[in-house]
From TrEMBL:
<dbReference type="InterPro" id="IPR027417">
    <property type="entry name" value="P-loop_NTPase"/>
</dbReference>
<protein>
    <recommendedName>
        <fullName>DNA 3'-5' helicase</fullName>
        <ecNumber>5.6.2.4</ecNumber>
    </recommendedName>
</protein>
<dbReference type="InterPro" id="IPR014001">
    <property type="entry name" value="Helicase_ATP-bd"/>
</dbReference>
<keyword id="KW-0378">Hydrolase</keyword>
<feature type="domain" description="Helicase ATP-binding">
    <location>
        <begin position="35"/>
        <end position="199"/>
    </location>
</feature>
<dbReference type="GO" id="GO:0003676">
    <property type="term" value="F:nucleic acid binding"/>
</dbReference>
<dbReference type="GO" id="GO:0043138">
    <property type="term" value="F:3'-5' DNA helicase activity"/>
</dbReference>
<dbReference type="GO" id="GO:0016787">
    <property type="term" value="F:hydrolase activity"/>
</dbReference>
<dbReference type="InterPro" id="IPR011545">
    <property type="entry name" value="DEAD/DEAH_box_helicase_dom"/>
</dbReference>
<comment type="similarity">
    <text>Belongs to the helicase family. RecQ subfamily.</text>
</comment>
<dbReference type="GO" id="GO:0000724">
    <property type="term" value="P:double-strand break repair via homologous recombination"/>
</dbReference>
<dbReference type="InterPro" id="IPR001650">
    <property type="entry name" value="Helicase_C-like"/>
</dbReference>
<dbReference type="GO" id="GO:0005634">
    <property type="term" value="C:nucleus"/>
</dbReference>
<feature type="compositionally biased region" description="Basic residues">
    <location>
        <begin position="370"/>
        <end position="382"/>
    </location>
</feature>
<dbReference type="GO" id="GO:0005737">
    <property type="term" value="C:cytoplasm"/>
</dbReference>
<keyword id="KW-0067">ATP-binding</keyword>
<dbReference type="Pfam" id="PF00271">
    <property type="entry name" value="Helicase_C"/>
</dbReference>
Length: 470
């Protein structure tokens, strides 16, 4: 990009500009991203930890072009409406004179989801045909860029984002940023967005969060009792007692969030039961925004949530993050754990509550039990001509079909199948079959597999050993 200013942009000049406009000192990786987007010659992929300031990297190149007197606009494509609203209403924008208010005619930055951006006959379809608009575009930024791959099956408009390159005559750089872009997902994102290897700049940091302490808790009670969460609200809790640390508990089903809240509230006096809420996609956007603000402002203690709260939402002082049950992959787990300790100087605790069947010790016991069990000889039966009678004979009775259910077993709805290979460890749930990825297996069983720290499996999965810390 040719600059109207004779002064060249250096890291020192960028740092001084951001410090003056926003009162923040940018990191080296943020300035590298900004400089690459300002020059506009290459697409950019950036990986940085949750809470590291990826949002700031959207604004710095806009500050640079404004400083040079250029009229430019950035487009941020975001998966979640609340995340987009949070970005557009950032205090940083107000301070720097950058606004996302299209209706007011101040569109230095547009925050939009992929469905609106690619709507047939929509507002953007008309804008792509107007060079007066497209000539002002500085970049297309894909916030939480891993969603281009991981969400593309149910948010299929992500699959067609590369079409933007053919709808617009100008060459506008793509900027993909996320905390969780392991190699398989990154390769998929590169393919979907058609990022050319020789025309893409990679700025990748370790995504480790040493300020978040990791733990795995073996569940002791049936999962649907939620009694493993009782430590959050101690027995006999009464008004005036110190509140629990600010917390988020992640589930993969809306009904579970509501049932967990009901259980935790039952341990509180009636006057305090509104201090714990649930937050999922069925709630109205106004409700979710209100509860997000209430947690931010310490009006409530914690939320039981689904992925509607999972990415990018910036609360500085969440102390406790819990993933309830092993129902997600490593990418999702790391995003959820990353909601904790996002403020300067903060520390948090992140705990995976795992069903006992996922632990090596339990697998060994199950294998030993199977080995000792005598093989049953197949009983000889007479041929049955009547097909209905035959089906009745081989069908299990009601008592037989529930013989394996144990009300005191947190894994009552899970059957462990003998794995063919270690990387094909399969757990069959009563509702669906789910595959336990090796990194999750290693994370759960790190102490018995020679890892000195639970971080090690995650660090290897995300290639943190190959990435810098700048």
């Amino acid at each position: 990009m040719s600059s109207s200013s004779e002064q060249k942009w250096t890291f020192k000049r960028i740092r001084d500009l951001v410090q003056a406009k926003l009162g923040k000192r940018p990191c080296l990786w943020q300035m590298k991203v900004a400089l690459a987007l300002y020059e506009g010659k290459k697409d950019v992929v950036a990986v940085a930890p949750t809470g590291a300031g990826k949002t700031l990297s959207f604004w710095i190149p806009l500050l640079m072009v404004l400083e040079d007197g250029q009229d430019k606009t950035g487009v941020i494509i975001t998966p979640l409406n609340l995340l987009g609203k949070q970005s557009a209403e950032s205090e940083l924008l107000a301070r720097a004179g950058i606004s996302g208010d299209v209706e007011a005619g101040k569109h230095r930055v547009l925050v939009v989801n992929p469905e609106i951006l690619s709507m047939e006959g929509g507002h953007f379809e008309r804008l792509w045909k107007k060079s007066a608009f497209t000539s002002k575009l500085l970049y297309f930024a894909f916030d939480e860029g891993h969603c281009v791959s991981t969400w593309s099956e149910f948010r299929n408009k992500y699959k067609y984002m590369a079409n933007l390159r053919y709808l617009i005559s100008e060459a506008i750089p793509f900027y993909v940023t996320s905390a969780t872009l392991p190699d398989p997902i990154l390769h998929d994102v590169v393919s979907i967005l058609q990022l050319h290897p020789k025309n893409t700049e990679y700025i990748c940091r370790s995504n480790d969060r040493p300020d978040i302490h990791l733990a795995v808790h073996r569940m002791l009670w049936p999962a649907n009792s939620f009694r493993d969460l009782d430590f959050i609200i101690k027995s006999g809790f009464k008004e005036g007692d110190p509140p629990p640390p600010k917390f988020l508990i992640f589930f993969d089903a809306r009904k579970e969030t509501e049932a967990a809240v009901k259980h935790l509230r039952s341990r509180l006096p009636e006057s305090l039961r509104g201090k714990i809420k649930y937050f999922h996609s069925v709630m109205t956007s106004e409700y979710r925004e209100d509860e997000y603000n209430a947690l931010r402002d310490d009006e409530i203690w914690g939320l039981c949530v689904t992925d509607a709260f999972g990415m990018g939402l910036d609360l500085p002082d969440v102390k406790l993050i819990i993933q309830y049950r092993v129902t997600c992959d490593a990418n999702t787990l790391w995003q959820r754990f990353g909601r904790g300790a996002r403020g300067d100087g903060q520390e948090g605790i992140a705990v995976l509550f795992a069903e006992k069947s996922f632990f090596d010790s339990e697998r060994a016991k199950a294998a030993e039990k199977r080995a000792k069990k005598p093989k049953k000889r197949k009983p000889r039966t007479q041929k049955v001509k009547d097909s209905n009678a035959k089906r009745a004979r081989i069908a299990p009775t009601t008592s037989e079909s529930h013989a394996s259910e144990d009300e005191d077993d947190p894994d009552a709805d899970t059957v462990y199948l003998e794995p063919l290979k270690r990387d094909e460890t399969t757990i069959r749930n009563a509702q669906s079959a789910r595959l336990l990825h090796p990194v999750m297996d290693d994370f759960i069983n790190a102490p018995t597999r020679g890892f000195l720290c639970r971080r090690k499996p995650m660090s290897l999965f995300f290639s943190n050993d190959k990435r810098g810390e700048s």
